[in-house]
Amino acid sequence: MTDESGRVSCHLAGLLDERRMTLVELAALTGITVANLSVLKNDRARAIRFSTLVAICDALGCQPADLLTVGPR
Amino acid sequence: MSTRVRHSMTSAVLVGACTVLGAGLLLAAVAVPLVGATDPSLPVTAGPSAPAVSWSTQVIPCLKDVTLPDGSRCEPAADAPSWPPGTPLPVTMTGASQWQLLGDGDLTERLLGTAPQWAALAAVGLAVLLLLPVVRTWSQARPFAPGNAARLAAAAGVLGLGWLLATALPPVAAAHRLGHVRSWSTGPSDPGLPLPTGWLVPALHPTWWPLAFVALVLVLALATRRGARLAADTEGLV
After folding, report:
1. How far apart are CA B73 and CA B101, in angstroms?
2. Tens digits of per-residue pLDDT, A47-61?
3. A48 vs B238: CB contact, 8 Å cut-off?
4. Quick one: residue B225, left, alpha or beta (phi over 0 = left, psi -120 to 50 = alpha)?
5. Cα of A25 to nearest chain B Cα, Å
């Protein structure tokens, strides 16, 4: 199976900018480490737990589709 | 001193010690047949046409009209005019039916006959050197680093090959020596009599316990391969 995770883009940086929030503040709100949030923000994540997704969406008041999109092949 | 520095020092010491150990074992493996510190192993056993033997400390073939050192006779006695009556076979006993040929051989025989020593030393030394990067990653708490499983499998292969050489080469040396075996000579003008054909044949006496180590390293290789796959699955998980 080929690794298709590269087609998934994360828009955490844009969502944080819109809310004038930093990674450290988001980490404090969600309980997720800054290191993991940084991996997600910089599109280096290859998989995401539902718990992470729910925590971020709750903190930012968004839906998963606002955070992640799948690019073309 | 920080934990990271302490870990890297421990890693360096461990890798250094393993390097010295591996290189030392390889050097010892080269030295064993050349220096002649150990006698070559030339395992033989009674052949199909061998007469009955009497043995206590020596192996004496039962020949007609021969009285043993304790005054007794052994039966059934065979007729063998080509072997001096009462003369022990040139072997030492290592077990009830396990004998070793005596005498110094040529370099080929020494090389083949000392295979249990040098092959074991070389295999362990080579395996230790092969596993140096694995030891380094273990000491860095990265047991599933890329290449570890392959190196462990290669080490198991080297150990298995060493065992195979240690087991198979001594009988080859014994077969080589059997072609030259003669009875003890009584003086410079007496070359001794040749051993009758078929009295002694090369014997295979495998030692099985080293295969447990080979299996252990192989299992470790398989476990590391599976662990590496699991680590790859969770890599990048947030």
Report:
1. 25
2. 999 999 999 999 999
3. yes
4. alpha
5. 17
Residues 6+ away with beta carbon under 8 Å from B24 = B125
Q: How many CA atoms lie within 13 A of A66 on its CB side?
A: 15
Q: Name all domains of chain A by residue range, CATH numbers in brackets.
A: 5-64 (1.10.260.40)
| Model-level ipTM above the cut of 0.95 | no
A52/B236 touch (CB, cutoff 8 Å), yes or no:
no
Measured CA to CA, the distance from residue B127 to residue A71 in angstroms comes to 48
Using one digit for the tens of pLDDT, what is the confidence trace for B127-153?
A: 999 999 999 999 888 999 999 999 999
SS3 A13: helix
Q: Which residues of B touch A40 (CB under 8 A)?
A: 238
Please give the Cα distance from B175 to B158 (Å, whole number): 26
Distance in Å, alpha carbon of A52 to nearest chain B alpha carbon? 7
Cβ of A49 and B237 within 8 Å?
A: yes
Closest partner residue to A52 (CB to CB) among B234, B235, B238 is: B238
Where do the structural domains in chain B lie, given as residue ranges? 3-234
Cβ atoms < 10 Å from Cβ of B48: 7
B236:A46 CB<8 A: yes
Cα–Cα distance, B178 to B173 (Å, whole number): 9
Dihedral of CA B204/B205/B209/B210: which sign?
Answer: negative
Query: For the residues of B47-91, what is the DSSP string, one character each?
Result: -TTPPPEEESSSEEE-BTT---TTS---SS-B--TTS-TTPPPSE
